[in-house]
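Example record

Each entry pairs one chain with its bound ligand, cobalamin.
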Amino acid sequence: MKIPILLSAALLLLLLPGVPAAFSSQTPIQILVTNSVTPSPDRTYSTYVVYRGILIGGMRRLQDSNTYFKFTYTEDQNYGPFLQSVNGLAGCPERRTYWQLLVQSSNDTTIRPNVGIGCYIPNANDTIILKYSTY
Ligand code: B12
Ligand SMILES: *[C@@H]1O[C@H](CO)[C@@H](O)[C@H](O)[C@H]1NC(C)=O
Ligand SMILES: *[C@@H]1O[C@H](CO)[C@@H](O)[C@H](O)[C@H]1NC(C)=O
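Structure tokens for the complex follow.
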């Protein structure tokens, strides 16, 4: 008795505009690794987060599947994961370098998120820019 009701409810949900996004499990993103301190070639990677998933999840997925992408982070007790190194290059307080997090949306606007990799929730087709920078 209950199964047909559930099935028709699921079908109805699929027909409603906007709702299918909640079922699609992959939000594709690009990750661009760039260096504004020492000239070096940019690298771009593709990965994804799950629906409303956090950036670090997509970064871990990429690290697990691509030997040319590696990152490390430290755990801040207040703000969570702090991105420490990318592809072997680490931020250094003495040299005042760090990995800045920027996000270029598919509409070409670039923002500097006010949260880190453990809190940022990417939008589909975002280019996440990991930019080695000075402060
Ligand atoms: C200085 C500072 C930095 C410096 C820290 C290095 C240094 N030696 O100075 C630098 C420039 C590296 C930095 C970077 C970032 N920061 Co900052 N930073 C600050 C600031 C202005 C002061 C922190 C401080 O010195 N506190 C005093 C000391 C004694 O306390 P502390 O606990 O030891 O401080 C450490 C942590 O704050 C840590 N830290 C600093 N920023 C961040 C961000 C994240 C996500 C994490 C996990 C840790 C962390 O570094 C400090 C020194 O070790 C705060 C704002 C504020 N007024 O508090 C923002 C602040 C902490 N930063 C913030 C953000 C968002 C970032 C970035 C993600 C920005 C970006 N889009 O790139 C990046 C981190 C990227 C990464 N690699 O993961 C947010 C965090 C909010 C949140 N809930 O996540 C804050 C609150 C500012 C804001 N926008 O509201 N930051
Ligand atoms: C671009 O997209 C972002 C995130 O999707 C949005 O916040 C921003 O308002 C958009 N900007 C413009 C100019 O359309
Ligand atoms: C993201 O890009 C894909 C492939 O180009 C496209 O099919 C999809 O509509 C885009 N999604 C958004 C939200 O821009």
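The first helix runs from residue 2 to 15.
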